[in-house]
Amino acid sequence: MYKVSILGHIGYDYEKRGRIDVSEHPFTTNFGNKDVRITTKYDTSDFRPAIFSMIHEGGHGIYEQNIPDELEGTSLGSGALMGMHESQSRFYENILGKSMEFWSYFYPKFQQTYKELEGVDIISFYKAINYVEPSLIRIDADELTYSLHIIIRYEIEKLLINSDINLDDVPGLWNEKYKEYLGVEPKNYADGVLQDVHWAGGDFGYFPTYALGNLYGAQIFNKLKKDIPDWNKKIYSGNFVPITKWLKENVHKYGATLKPAELIKKVTGEELSAKYFIDYLNDKFGKLYGV
Ligand SMILES: [Zn+2]
């Protein structure tokens, strides 16, 4: 059976400087740039959480493995805050990982591993992995509705921090906002307010980094496409080296020596703008859904 080594292809070194384990909520942890570990999770009835959370964490891992040795052991030897970190993970997970170019290369190999996909053509597969549907679980959400999950969490944590609500109000408010913004309502806490590890671990104010990451990622991608005009041909043929090299040279090599606002300007020549992410969504989902 062909082994689908997606992470190795996109540039995550899991043989010498990394490893992959299993956890309920996938994450990346590292001890310098030579020991960068990631986790993924498995759902035996659905390959998507495993594949896309692995590519997501792989994006974080590539960033940390590409931090230059000169910065090792200093407080600058890491990514430029989490918003920029999430831009890299979400770039690999979504912009690359859910693109037709990406799967044109991997899908035939993937079908050899997952026999259930034998009769499924690539167009149907591409539509399925980009299917837009309001849902309960943030990490499984499609690109279009994803940011609504973040807005809900951000609004609730702002109310909490300002003491405008009590802790006991959170589960009810969560359900109300899911109904209002996404039209769905969790039946239990596991599919609702307890689905993430962030608040329980003290990470208040973290969620917006994912939405910021979407914006940084799309703006960086726009510049990457100008510098590597045949980026899609390279991915079609499974050659991710120029892309990961470009990210290393333009983003990763700075570690935390620049703040995200400085870094985005250095990379793209502009301040952060939502325009590129909105254009990206309009283009991709406009084509997918014919709107
Ligand atoms: Zn992440």
Coarse shape: globular
What oligomeric state is this? Answer: single chain
Structural class: mainly alpha
Average residue-wise pLDDT:
94
Distance between the termini: 40 Å
Count, helices:
12
The stretches of 5 or more residues where confidence is low (pLDDT under 50) are none
Q: Can you list the ligands bound to this structure? A: zinc ion
Largest sheet: 3 strands, mixed
| Radius of gyration over C-alpha positions, nearest whole angstrom | 19 Å
Give structural notes.
Strands 1-3-2 form a 3-stranded mixed sheet, with helices on one face. The protein has helices spanning 6-10, 48-65, 81-96, 100-113, 122-129, 143-161, 170-182, 208-227, 231-236, 241-250, 260-268, 275-289, and strands spanning 18-22, 28-30, 36-40. It is globular, with a radius of gyration of 19 Å. By secondary structure, the chain is mostly helical. Residues 56, 60, 86, 89 line the site of zinc ion (ZN).
Features:
single chain; 3 strands; 12 helices; mainly alpha; three-stranded mixed β-sheet; Neurolysin, domain 3; 291 residues; binds zinc ion
Show the helix and strand layout.
Blueprint: H1 6-10, E1 18-22, E2 28-30, E3 36-40, H2 48-65, H3 81-96, H4 100-113, H5 122-129, H6 143-161, H7 170-182, H8 208-227, H9 231-236, H10 241-250, H11 260-268, H12 275-289
Parallel strand pairs: 1-3
Antiparallel strand pairs: 2-3
Helix pairs in contact: 2-3, 3-8, 6-7, 8-12
This protein binds zinc ion (ZN).
